[in-house]
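Supplementary material to the annual report.
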Amino acid sequence: MLNEATTLEGGFSNPVLNAQSVFRAVMDAMAKPATIVEVDAVVAPPSRLGRAAAAVACALIDVDTPFWLDATLAESTALRAWLAFHTGAREMATCADVAFALIGAPATMPPLERFAQGTQEYPDRSATLILQLPGLEGGTPLTFEGPGIRDRVVLAPRGLPQDFAAQWKANRKRFPRGVDLVLTTGDAIACLPRSARLVEMEG
Amino acid sequence: MNAHTQVSNYNFAYLDEQTKRMIRRAILKAIAVPGYQVPFASREMPMPYGWGTGGVQVTASILGPDDVLKVIDQGADDTTNAVSIRKFFQKVAGVETTTSTEDATIIQTRHRIPEAPLQEDQILVYQVPIPEPLRFLEPRETETRKMHALEEYGLMHVKLYEDIAKNGHIATTYAYPVKVEGRYVMDPSPTPKFDNPKMHMSPALQLFGAGREKRIYAVPPHTEVISLDFEDHPFEVQRFDKPCALCGAEQVYLDEVVLDDRGGRMFVCSDTHHCESRQAAGHRGEMSGEVLS
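Predicted assembly:
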């Protein structure tokens, strides 16, 4: 049996203002790609989901936006019940058509091209992937340029798929189609909108 | 924190939470695809279409209790549209408002970009009447959508070329089309083309809301915004013969004010805050008047 108290508790204590503050952090991070932004993550999700990832989910996902969980997260019945209660959204069995995907083990996640890419006419009909990473610092440095970035910016997230660089380049090539990423760890996030171009560094 | 309860029975910033989430998701997609118009389920607002319902919905969805809001209408803080929208948010969100460009965190605008350079972390929200730059060339939404999808913008250049053929120069003076990050042609809303260069590489985030047409689009900070032109007819902004008659400012956008029925007129800053702060700093124009002793 699920512990009902755990399911019902741990959401936004002030749904209106908490959602606003988390959204502003995401908007800020989306407008300044690959920059680490602190989220006032005032949620207490079941242990398997990080606080920032849970806060972003609670702020953006609702009855209009079905979501998908990767195998690591889907294993946790407590988490599924918690998300269902706090977002009101439907969980889907496949990742192809969802608006949001929550990914607990990004290293083994399905390729980016498996998620909704939007169409050439409606590129907004694409998935936003919320990745839970072991860290946003200390990994392989990735250099980005593009809208929202003055000159260049370096982000070194840990726990991305081995071939992430190649996958991201392919994602950028599909522009204006493509997925957008919200990288999370602890109470921090960094966003990679599809407009961010990965720069090949020499040496 | 409970300032908004002055008007009971309304949610903070008027819109319900599900509507805000829908608009917020549209804003994020708009930022991810700069210049692309994201459809959204625009709500009826307690003001008529044409009064900035798109901008108001965008502002309501991003606004927090710590924000400081400035609203301008054609550059002025004190005209009907600006005053009523400012009062609306004072009432339904209890936020602090200002007329100072420097102090504002969110600036909602109808048809101008402030003269004072915007800063990192400021957000400019445009009220947009017709978001589709190709609409007067091709009335069918199905077609314009396809033109954007295929990056087929030849028609727009033909329009600008016809301007040159008829008038000897590009006669479009407002809503002058721009290309964002080399991909989407975008309507900068009916700002005078004087303001187009300010959009290019602006450190502020620019969000556009069209309420009646149900579209949201965005230009992230530090993003390339190029006004369309031709090699032999490069883009040019308006020039004014005289400085502002009140504060003497040059290189600013001026409004013409008719003074009498004998042809008397003056030109003054359209950005009222800019003009007032210059006058406060001691700048004088030729008609600023002196205090009679």
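Chain B touches chain A at residues 1, 11-12, 17-18, 20-22, 24-34, 36, 38-39, 61-65, 121, 145-146, 148-150, 181, 183-184, 203, 205, 219-224 (CB under 8 Å).
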